[in-house]
Amino acid sequence: MLAARSPVSLHHRIVAGGQRRRCVGGSERKRGRTQGRHFTQALESLWRQSPRISPPAAAAATGGEVNPLWQPPALENAAFEEYYKVQQIVHKEEWDVFMSFLRKPLPATFRINASCQFYKDICSKLENDFRQSLESEVSNEYGEDAIRPLPWYPGNLAWHLNFSRKELRKNLALESFHEFLKHESEVGNITRQEAVSMVPPLFLNVHPDHHILDMCAAPGSKTFQLLEMIHQSKEPGLLPGALVMANDLNVQRCDLLIHNTKRMCTANLIVTNHEAQNFPNCSLAKDYSEAYKDNCKSQRLEFDRVLCDVPCSGDGTIRKGHDMWRKWNSGMGNQLHLLQVNIAMRGIALLKVGGRMVYSTCSMNPVENEAVIAELLRRNGNSVELLDVSSELPELVRRPGLSTWKVQDRGSWFQTHDDVPHDRKNVVLPSMFPSSNITEESHAVCGYVEINTDNRGSFSRNCDIEETSNINHDMDGVSTDPTSNLDCTSNVVNSKFPLHRCMRIVPHDQNSGAFFIAVLHKLSPLNGSQIQGTKVQHTLGKGRIKQLHKEPEPETRPCETILTCQQNNVLEVDDAELLGRRQNLSADNQTSKDKNSTEVEMVFNDVKSGREESGDIMKLQKQSRWKGVDPVLFFKDELVIKSIKSFFGIKESFPLEGYLVTRSTDNARRMYYISKSVKEIVELNEEVGEQLKIASLGVKMFERHRSKDGCSCAYRLSYEGLSLLLPYISTRILYASPLDFHRLLQYRTINFAHFVDSRFGEEAASMMPGCCVVVLLEGHENADSILKDPTTIAIVCWRGKGTMNVMVSPPDRTDLLERMAYRFGIKASAEEDEKLMDLTREDGNIMRI
Ligand SMILES: C[S@@+](CC[C@H](N)C(=O)[O-])C[C@H]1O[C@@H](n2cnc3c(N)ncnc32)[C@H](O)[C@@H]1O
Predict the structure, then answer these.
(1) Where does the SAM-dependent MTase RsmB/NOP-type domain lie (predicted)?
(2) Domain of residue 447, residue span
(3) Residue 128 gets which letter from DSSP?
């Protein structure tokens, strides 16, 4: 992917980011109010305390080794227990089992990338190899069916392991399986991701032509899943019409997102770096009606699907062994509520009419969940509905959203905003309550909402759902139910929105983490006041930089100021473990900087060498509106494109003109291929004065080389883009037997005379020097059928003076060697190894890439 910054600096930034991490919210305040005491006393009498576990038991629970000097962290937090008991997050009969699951290590899970070339090999290895061998080796320890597909994930693509990631790392019996998982995730064939985190993209109901916005995307596990979905049914050489725009505010996490999604080698992805709540419009049209004037051209950014996986307190990930037990306090959720509302409101504004938006958090807290959804429904009125998706993914056990909850602030509990003391009213917001009665818009838009009671039974195995139907929304979407039997209060206020259509996944239902998901459907364009509430950007005119039209909602303005510093201290989800890392990344200082375009200076370590290169063929200089991010430029040098096309015999049916982009400072060293959907966005962005801050896009297709071999084409192919281009290449192709292909992969550089098949060696020797493609012959009838076969294995090589040299990264080479071993059982003998290495050394021909 074409990135705005060099990935080399990623590690440094990650480390630096980790040192800056702070937790959400402040310290827990002293509780002095009588109200708080009453609640606690009442709770004590109603619900017995759950048993405290002893340190050795805790150590055993986390799977840690017993070290006499080491004190395991206590897996308990009284404030957490009190909070969720009051919220009645589960029935009181379930409380102990709920808590006991929170203290157990989380089972490891992963997903197979069905769009990857080796998908079938991987499925077969899992089913026929690991599943069976581990069944016999570890069933005593981890029970039967220790590796099995998750029943609710379509196509058996997601797998559950009866052991945690820690056990996977430590248990010798699991070593080869662990190596397999590590390696396959490195090359993008599988993604290690928490089971519940895989749920939100499934409810988006993605089609291969959808434009999808992932608003808070880093580290990218859901973005990767969305990419898998849009690429699943593609034919070789054909790109889907879809597009994924993955955004994250945090620059370091954006780098991680780029790194992780790079494994997908997709031309249909754009990574941007914005505050999601201020995500630009890129509108050429003055108003909504104009946006549809020209059907052939995008007039504004609009998405068929929006994933709004917002920053959250993250207490649903408590089983991952985070510091969550120690750090948790109810302020964490309160501080994020407004940001979550603002991000989701922006998502709705960017959603097409008829489109779907999924709102999700890995938090259990109703203030971050149901309260946000209620506020969205309140603000958007009849323009948006909360969908009943109880018939989708029927095997996934989930519970209905809560219809009532309370808000805690500094130890005091409140049922309505009226109860909040004056000096806290701008911190504890009306929208946090089920009884919110705030916005002007909400008065205007709340209407008659029909609640479908037919499907409620399938929502929950364990919860009773209040009988409600055809509720007439009053002005604030609230009803008071004094007969309700919520602990510790006499007046229970229920939201009248059909919040039971939201979904909450709790750990003890299917041995997972916790998650919250709500699916929204846009029914009609937003009206003026609703749009204003989403802080839309307005267009000043073609080619001019747009101004951020800041008109925050009156009711949120005071709190925004207070929250500015706190919002960004987000406790990150542990999906960054994807790469086996556990960095602590913070989003510090991004909010205001982003608006003013004063981002941290970015390092391009290639820039210098690029500029110094002799014979620069392009003089590309252009200032970006985004400091540190170079503009994306279309590569327009017709002579160069012509020479590439003729050198590789690229067929006319594969358009290069208008689909190759580069960065200005890159001096066209690397060219990236973009899909038609991405091309349209880049063109629109150019027209609106680069409102989008594009961090990376497309798949690397060509790279300039500096070989003195006398090659007539200045560019070589990149392995990342090869599978897309392969069906359209007609020259510079050699076909190798499995044995010679294996040798090439193993030794990287082979003298023409040392190939087993002398015909192959001769063909290589007779080729002009330069970049070429070597295809593995697997009994195909003709060349055309090989190149169009999605399972064909091919690599990029360099035909040097006397040798053939492989130009594939080490992880990809290892991956291909694995495939060779699996498909053909080929493994070179040690003796053979030595001989070939000696010969290559004698020739002095080892080429470093
Ligand atoms: C829950 S994580 C997203 C996880 C991601 N969807 C995945 O599946 O890998 C939330 C992300 O939101 C980002 N974030 C925080 N505040 C943001 C904002 N105002 N706009 C956009 N992203 C934000 C954080 O940097 C973090 O990466």
Answers:
(1) 98-523
(2) 195-403+440-462+498-595
(3) I
Task: Give the residue among 201, 179, 258, 310 at the shortest CA–CA distance from 580.
Answer: 179
Please identify, by atom number, the ligand 1 atom nearest to the C-alpha of residue 257.
9
**73 lies in a domain?**
no
Q: What is the rounded distance in angstroms from the CA atom of residue 109 to the CA atom of residue 93? A: 29
- Ligand 1 site: residues with CB under 6 angstroms? 197, 216-222, 248-250, 253, 275-277, 309, 311, 570, 572-573, 575, 587
- Return mean pLDDT, the chain: 76
Predicted confidence (pLDDT) per residue in 758-809, tens digit: 999 999 999 999 999 999 988 766 667 788 788 899 999 999 999 999 999 9
Looking at the 3D structure of the chain, how many domains does it have?
4
φ, ψ for residue 173, nearest 5 deg: -65, -20
**What pTM did the predictor assign?**
0.78
The model's pLDDT over 292-347, given as tens digits with 9 standing for 90+, comes to 555 556 678 999 999 999 999 999 999 987 689 999 999 999 999 999 999 999 99
Q: 775 and 642, same structural domain?
A: no
777: Cβ contacts below 8 Å, ≥ 6 apart: 735, 736, 737, 738, 741, 786
Residues 246, 314 within the same domain: yes
Q: Which residues are known catalytic residues?
A: 362
Tell me how crowded residue 295 is: count the other CB atoms within 10 A of its CB: 7
Predicted-complex ipTM score:
1.00
Q: Is 398 left (phi over 0), alpha (psi -120 to 50) or beta?
A: beta
Residue 337 lies in a domain: yes
Atom in ligand 1 nearest the alpha carbon of residue 361 = 1
Residues whose CB is less than 8 angstroms from the CB of residue 275 and which lie 6 or more positions away in sequence, other chains included: 249, 590, 591, 594, 595
* pLDDT tens digits, one per residue of 1-53: 666 643 333 333 333 333 333 222 223 333 333 344 443 344 334 344 444 44
